[in-house]
Amino acid sequence: MTGQDPSLKLGDHQFGASGEIRRAVLRTLFQQMESMGEGAIAVDAQARVAWINEKYARKLGLATTAEAIGREIEQIIPNSLMRQVVQTGEPVLLDIMEFGAEQLVVTRMPLTDTAGAVVGAVGFVVYDRVHYLKPLVAKFEHLHQELESARRHVAEGRHARYTFASVVGASPACVELKRQARRAAQLDATVLLLGETGTGKELLAHAIHAASPRNLKPFVALNIAAVPESLLEAEFFGAAPGAYTGADRRGRDGKFKLADGGTLFLDEVGDMPLNVQAKLLRVLQEQEIEPLGSNRLLRVDVRVIAATSVDLEAQVRQGRFRADLYYRLNVLSIALPPLRDRLQDLAALVELFLAQISERSGLPQREITEQGLAALAGHGWPGNIRELRNVLEKAVMLSEERRLDAADFRPLLPTAATAAPAAGHLLADAVVEAERDAIQAALAAAGGNRSKAAQLLGISRATLYEKLARSPGGQTG
Ligand SMILES: Nc1ncnc2c1ncn2[C@@H]1O[C@H](COP(=O)(O)OP(=O)(O)OP(=O)(O)O)[C@@H](O)[C@H]1O
């Protein structure tokens, strides 16, 4: 083929009408490509080898060029894209082709007859060492890494943010809790976390996932109480395009799909309507989901960690929770103790939260006096660790002192009288008294500053004035 017109067709408009110039360009191009490159090959319209140069035949381990002629291109070069070029008529101008352990930089072009029909393709090995392209490849790798890191960043929202190190506490109750949770991390069974609100169920679920073999896959959380009943099914299982009125026309993935390979945390599982309970049970048994409005079953591999702050057994007895689902979820159950039963951890938790508050606000870190800690220890903490964090946040906001004292907490913690009203006490009276106490405590804490007191009470200044005007003696503030 060398010396012949390779019939690469270039439009006359590019080179004027001069056939001479066109032929010279084609000849020179071909000769240069063939001699500078590491190999050249041409195939016919059926992608059979029509010609190959010596260099390429040697590189491909053939004794002679004749050995290749007439054979299907893939028999000679398994990863070749020459057939694709013939079939599509589209060139592949620059590509990295794997040949055994080698990587070859190749370029492939269709060959057309004078009428423009594809009659074959020609390929050149431009380099046989990719390191010639080092600057280009390095740039590509750099961009690739940046993309990966951006993707990781996005995915982080779906990964466990907390490990067992984030679960603070050295009380016997907490040590036992972490022991059970570590064991659960090693097993792939469903876990049921039981505990009052704010005891750290979600935090523990994160930690279990992070210590489990699924830790490189997503951690997805769903608070069932926060999703309207009518949307729960789509939230769980996803919806096919246009599955229900108002649904995203493109359809959407459900939490099970998003958590595939990883862990799905279902908070307040006791709030699930019975019909969805039946569907959840099926998914847990079959590990298959059927998105709303689609009749396709999708396989998923999800470990469920469920949590509840209500007595699920009682719900089962009342017929509000399916017994079979309860048993399915309750394979491994872990009870989180309320804060009042692990007061030994109070100091460590206070220190952790004060450090976090300072980090977030940029203010110097506060400390706490012994009396301050004692005041906190005397409180019942119905909202548990979350309540503790909120109380500390408010105290830091309201006090200028470096060390928080009992007086800083008193207005923030309900008194015994309001916490446990005596029998026979009318609700209306109790409310009035509680309100008066809270207003007085807030005013005292705010040093008489009404705006600050209103802020502390979570009401507007106008409402505070109104309440003060109505309450005898309230005007003193
Ligand atoms: N042992 C702990 N160490 C440090 N922080 C904790 C600990 N336990 C709970 N927390 C913090 O307390 C807050 C409440 O915890 P979390 O949301 O996990 O509770 P929950 O039991 O899931 O609450 P709910 O039932 O209301 O959803 C979070 O900010 C969490 O980080």
Explain what the structure shows.
The protein is an alpha/beta fold and 477 residues long. The protein has helices at 12-15, 19-36, 54-59, 73-76, 82-88, 134-156, 172-186, 201-210, 229-237, 255-258, 274-286, 312-317, 323-329, 346-361, 370-377, 384-398, 406-409, 416-419, 427-445, 450-457, 461-470; strands at residues 39-44, 49-52, 92-99, 102-112, 118-127, 191-194, 219-223, 263-267, 288-289, 298-299, 303-308, 332-335, 367-368, 403-404. The strands form 4 sheets. A 5-stranded antiparallel sheet has the order 2-1-5-4-3, with helices on both faces. Strands 7-8-11-6-12 form a 5-stranded parallel sheet. It starts with 11 loop residues before the first helix and ends in a 7-residue tail after the last helix. Residues 1-7, 416-421 and 472-477 have low confidence and may be disordered. Bound molecules: adenosine-5'-triphosphate. Adenosine-5'-triphosphate binds next to α8 and α16.
Task: Describe how the helices and strands are arranged.
Elements lengths: L11 H4 L3 H18 L2 E6 L4 E4 L1 H6 L13 H4 L5 H7 L3 E8 L2 E11 L5 E10 L6 H23 L15 H15 L4 E4 L6 H10 L8 E5 L5 H9 L17 H4 L4 E5 L6 H13 L1 E2 L8 E2 L3 E6 L3 H6 L5 H7 L2 E4 L10 H16 L5 E2 L1 H8 L6 H15 L4 E2 L1 H4 L6 H4 L7 H19 L4 H8 L3 H10 L7
Parallel strand pairs: 6-11, 6-12, 7-8, 8-11, 13-14
Antiparallel strand pairs: 1-2, 1-5, 3-4, 4-5, 9-10
The structure holds adenosine-5'-triphosphate.
Adenosine-5'-triphosphate (ATP) binds next to helix 8 and helix 16.
Organism: Roseateles agri
Protein name: Sigma 54-interacting transcriptional regulator
InterPro entries: AAA+_ATPase, AAA_lid_NorR, Homeodomain-like_sf, HTH_Fis, P-loop_NTPase, PAS-like_dom_sf, PAS_fold, Sigma_54_int
